User: Fold Peptide/nickel transport system ATP-binding protein from Prauserella marina.
Amino acid sequence: MIVEARGLGFTHRAGTAALSDVGFAVERGQTVGIVGESGSGKSTLVRLLCGLLPGYTGSATYAGREIGDWLREDAREFRSRNQLVFQSPSGSFDPRLRLATSLAEPLRSLARRKPEPGELETQLGEVGLSAELLSRYPHELSGGQLQRMALARALVVNPAVLYADEPTSALDVSVQAQVLNLLMDIQDRLGATLIVVSHDLAVVARLCEYVFVLRAGSVVEHGETTALLRSPASPYTRALITAAESVALDRGVSPVRGGAARRTIRGWRPHG
Ligand SMILES: Nc1ncnc2c1ncn2[C@@H]1O[C@H](COP(=O)(O)OP(=O)(O)OP(=O)(O)O)[C@@H](O)[C@H]1O
Ligand SMILES: [Mg+2]
Assistant:
């Protein structure tokens, strides 16, 4: 297991118990979905697993090592291996900085180096963006472009695990499909572990081979996506499926990609 949690609990500073007794396990190279209604703790869980919320109870490990220990001993190393694309692309860029500066920031702070000549341009090419966007400010991009930019920024440090929190929910329907395709493409090419949060089961069905269902801070069920969608054990999951079906599952979206060929981007080396 590359990521594993047992009896994981977390209470926000304001006193909200957001996670309790969460069990979670992800194998290297897997695409895993986390679904659940608003407020069920999805963002809290991925932020915690990315090392952004210290002070949990129970156990959460990355590559067999307790996340809290990694963070205390080498936070930069941990963060460069675990990258999160935030729920809102517009809020995740500093509006005062040109995108070239924002894109280079993880390199500067985590890898302690400047970009090589052409490196940022290549990175943008990987997410289907033109290099001329580098000199712009965040408000000068569309939502879809900004979401691609957020993906590029997460990938610039070659993470072993990429977390995407609601990667499409802030986007126009026409752009949603493009970003989903891009995520699938990235995962196929990099073979990285991809953990996707969505309240929309159709998104998870399209991207993920395994899914965890979260409700009020606990996992209510988990399993292979196809099997779980076909015969959900809990009424809560059934309700989520019904909600998703009315929107997109019946648009011919085939759940679960399997056996996708894993190619490797030149020069890309997954950590750990
Ligand atoms: N910074 C915070 N301070 C206090 N409480 C918080 C904070 N962030 C989240 N919470 C609370 O923790 C619980 C879980 O929130 P979380 O953001 O993880 O849910 P979510 O499943 O991501 O929801 P959504 O689908 O709306 O994004 C909620 O009750 C929320 O109000
Ligand atoms: Mg959230």
